[in-house]
Fold:
Amino acid sequence: MRFRLHRPDLPGGPITETEVFPLRSLVREPMSYGRLYLLGDAAHVISPMGAKGMNLALYDAEVFATAVRDFAAYGDDSGLRSYSAVCLARTWKHQEWSQWMSEMLHGMCDPEVFRARPARARFERVASTPAGARYWAELMTGLG
Structure:
């Protein structure tokens, strides 16, 4: 906190309690109905664990803007008709990534929980092998 708040004089104290809150995710399907199109948080909320919310919103906006341009300039409505399917495919991939990341990292919090050992093994595999690092990088950048 001292570092983040730029307050080296901030008094310290013991951590007396920790709690893991379930993070909410939501995906609206379809992301369009007639002439109504949902973009960003109106269409999907992703837990902040995967840090993908803004990336998805910007992707939605790019796909939608291109579809509107093609319709306005050329009368081509194929982009508008496929908007929901195109964006949902990416959204579900990132939802899966965020869920995987949450389970992997939060599963390590309590060593008495059975899921902790597989979560730790998964984390160690990802962190210690070139293939795991490549998988992590592809998911994190959205290229995979």
Observations:
- The mean pLDDT is 86.
- Residues 31 and 88 are 7 Å apart (CA to CA).
- The radius of gyration is 20 Å.
- Helices lie at 2-5, 53-74, 78-106, 116-128, 130-141.
